């Protein structure tokens, strides 16, 4: 299992410093987040600017955001920014992606933004389709559900030919949301969430999800990441056991995520990142 750390609070400079500490203390990935205006939650920053700065001062760790609110972005600008960070980092960018949250006034306070869940999901598919075509290095046009673009070309492809995409996927054991889950299977991984719950997925849910994904994979044997958020306790033995249980259930990434503005500060994040990820065998 690999371990990532989310820089959920702090200034841009504190995010960059946190990422350097993450690399120095054995983490496998550093992630920022993507929003425009979240009211009292605190300041937000351009995720690609943060990741570009992090790319310049790190060498090993994967970089991304938890998660990119893709439907809010213009696809050609998103493609250019992702390509830039991909090249700055030597191919270390990953793209966890979702429909975004309506707590973000970047949706609800802007005329013309599509805010329905179905419409945002359609936009997500449009932008991802555009993104994939942009990686060819050849001129292309795009005709999606909501996005229509005349001829365009991005002559430089990503460092590794493509950038891994991890869509958010919601698990419901009683009624698996097939369309949502099949979207993840078309790409490179899933950021796992539990239906109608803010709780992190446990081993039982991860195992059931991993089994469903394996049974419905379009390309059996294709590398595929099962990405799960979590919070380590600080007890090394207990955390190693938690990580081991998730890994045995099928998770391939643990993303350390602290979002409570009442209890989480840049200083507590720095303390946690310096503890390093647990060893789980």
**Amino- and carboxy-terminal Cα gap:** 9 Å
Q: Main beta sheet, described?
A: 9 strands, parallel
- Bin the strand percentage: 15-25%
Task: Give the helices and strands as they follow along the chain.
Answer: EHEHEEHEHHEEEHEHEHEH
Morphology call: globular
Task: Output the strand order for the largest sheet.
Answer: 3-2-1-11-10-9-8-5-4
Please outline the helices and strands.
Elements lengths: L1 E5 L5 H13 L4 E4 L14 H11 L4 E4 L2 E2 L5 H14 L6 E4 L6 H4 L8 H18 L5 E4 L4 E5 L12 E7 L6 H8 L3 E6 L8 H14 L8 E6 L5 H14 L3 E4 L9 H10 L6
Parallel strand pairs: 1-2, 1-11, 2-3, 4-5, 5-8, 8-9, 9-10, 10-11
Antiparallel strand pairs: 6-7
Helix pairs in contact: 1-2, 1-9, 2-3, 3-5, 7-8
Report on the architecture of this protein.
- The protein is of the alpha/beta class and 281 residues long.
- It contains nine helices and eleven strands.
- Helix 1 (12-24) packs parallel to helix 9 and helix 2 (47-57) packs parallel to helix 3.
- The protein is globular, with a radius of gyration of 18 Å.
Task: Output the keywords.
two-stranded antiparallel ribbon, alpha/beta
Question: What would you say about this model in short?
Answer:
The chain has helices at residues 12-24, 47-57, 75-88, 105-108, 117-134, 178-185, 203-216, 236-249, 266-275, and strands at 2-6, 29-32, 62-65, 68-69, 95-98, 140-143, 148-152, 165-171, 189-194, 225-230, 253-256. It is α/β, with parallel strands linked by helices and 281 residues long.
